[in-house]
Amino acid sequence: MAGQAERAAKDRIVTLDVTRGIAVMGIFSVNVVGMAMIQSAYFYPPAFGFDGLGDRIMWLLNFIFIDGKLRGLFSVMFGASILLVMDAARRAGRDPWKTHYARMLVLLGFGLLHFFVLWWGDILTHYAAVGMVVVLLSKLNAQRLFALSAVAFIAFAAPGVYFFNKEAQSYHHSLEPGAPPELKKKWAERMAGIRPDAKAISEDRAAHASIPAHFRAAQEKGPLAPLDLGPLWIETLGFMLLGMAGYKSGFLTGAWDDRRYCRVAILCFGGPLVIFAAFGAYAWQYGFAPIEFTMVNRIYAPPLRPIMAMGIAALIILMFREGSALRDRFAAVGRTAFSNYIACTLIGTFVFYGFGLDLYAQLSRGEAWLLVPPVWAFMLLWSKWWLERFHYGPLEWLWRSLSRLELQPLRRTTADRPMEVA
């Protein structure tokens, strides 16, 4: 019985790692756009590089399957990992709270470097800050954590729906023949500013010509810019709370039976999948007009993201319950998720920025996405190779060493020793 329990515990860790690995791979599928072209195109595709059919198909596939869902799933796994790390610290006789806050402070430092030196889309500072808050609720049971996550998602979505409806009414009123001239002028200026002109694109290219140029541009945004994510704080808090609830309930650790996972996968993945496809078709039908696109992408889609994220998690758990070579590779990507996340930025910025191949603002959305499959292959190949020789990913090792103010063992001494979780 003891042996079975040990094997079950190991499988549950693998379940977490596989899910985290797939999530971090999916994130790059969306982030590559933010590295390849002007920032506004990340949020509104027609702003740049969106003229071909391939660009629209790539947006649609990302919108249906990845955008917001796998970032959300990664946030869920981050919340679960907070409890996992604190539990491990407690078993090892270390103070779990000191362990957690030391990790978050170091992560905050990494995030600031990532933002100011490499890329505006950093999420590490955000995770570190939210992680310092969400841990205060970590002693609650799974039911209360789940309820609080639902409250957070409602608090995130509801104001957007209210204010968007007011804005949409104002816009449609401006199109009426008898609309006030100042209202018409206001909306004409706003619509004209959605797509960057040649001067804006030229200035943006200059800001990505080198690391010093990026640093100067990032500095102009202010020292708190990487933390200025507005309502996204509330959504991320909801996802992390959901992760804690999923960990405590056994959902994320693979402790449920297959029948329950099947129900979650069908209801939480299958149902939203149809709705997201309908939303995408609606935006496409209206030519990605700003109001219609905003409605489906930033107003009505977000409330469904946590539902679909948990459906994806259930599907992953079902698919990778049994050991396989593919499961091992996804798990290795998950165990080196921090290193892989930064590696994606290094690869993306080298390909697109001026200090590398200088393809920034030269490719369409679909063309830029062609970088994704080889990077996925790289992640699957190097992660397992590395962990067969070392205990942790390179940045996981550095994070762990800095958090503990002591160099941690890195190289493996025996070939058959099991891989560890950083």
What features would you describe in this structure?
The protein is mainly alpha-helical. The protein has one domain (2-404). 73% of the residues lie in helices and 0% in strands. It has 19 helices and no strands. It has helices at residues 2-36, 39-43, 53-65, 69-91, 96-118, 124-134, 142-174, 181-192, 198-207, 211-220, 232-249, 258-285, 290-300, 305-319, 325-335, 337-352, 365-369, 372-387, 394-404. Helix 1 crosses helix 4, helix 1 packs parallel to helix 16 and helix 5 (96-118) crosses helix 19 (394-404). It is globular, with a radius of gyration of 22 Å. The chain starts with a helix and ends in an 18-residue tail after the last helix. Mean pLDDT is 93; it is low at 1-12.
Distance between the termini: 27 Å
Which bin fits the share of residues in helices?
A: over 70%
Count all strands and give the number: 0
What does the main sheet amount to? Answer: none
Mean pLDDT over the full residue set: 93
SSE run: HHHHHHHHHHHHHHHHHHH
What percent of residues are in strands? Answer: under 5%
Helix count from the secondary structure assignment: 19
Q: How many domain regions?
A: 1
* Uncertain segments: 1-12
The 3D shape can be described as globular
Q: What structural category arises from helix and sheet content? A: mainly alpha
CA radius of gyration: 22 Å
Keywords: Membrane, Transmembrane, Transmembrane helix
Protein name: DUF418 domain-containing protein
Domain DUF418: 247-404
Transmembrane segments: 21-44, 70-89, 101-117, 145-164, 264-284, 304-320, 332-356, 368-387
